[in-house]
Amino acid sequence: MKKNSILMIIAAVLAVGFVFIASDFAGSRSSAQKAPQTTPDVITLAKDAKIGQVAFDHKKHNGGTYTIDQSGAIACIACHHTARPAADIAKFPPLKTAWPADRTTTLTAELYAKDPAGAGANACRDCHARTGEKPKLLDAIPEVKHEGSAAVITLNNQQAFHRTCAGCHTEVKKTVPTTKGPTTNQCTMCHKKAA
Length: 195
Known about the structure:
Elements: H1 2-34, E1 42-45, E2 53-57, H2 58-63, H3 86-89, H4 109-114, E3 143-145, E4 152-154, H5 157-175, E5 191-192
Antiparallel strand pairs: 1-2, 2-5, 3-4
């Protein structure tokens, strides 16, 4: 009888211990899953460019180190322009695509930290594919026609990057002429060939 009682006590202690260990493991997994996800610090762009890759410092561009007019961090939607409701996009021609089309939120760092999968921070190439390739999210590479021009521009990844980056850098040069950032004809300030 004594032996059975001792075995039952040992079994009970082991069972309780197992429950605590299992619940602690489950708790640590759920808290890890709920931990805010941060945006990448550096993103490699133009991996196949003949003049070299671009190490885009996302942290400095989005974190406030670099700014357009010295008033604060560059908004996520400055680059991820489809990540806002269609009604907002319509205010900025020639932009016209919201992704997804029924989007109701505007991408911010806070929204991304809360829900990275649902925030809608797609990669540029998801819409702006290389020439001759089909975009992941759209039926075709976007095309624009600027006001006052009959020319249609296919915004492949190279066009999209250069227009977005050069446009921003041009604005920075206007607001802070002494800035050391690249201008539209200083390609190798961003593009670096592997050593």
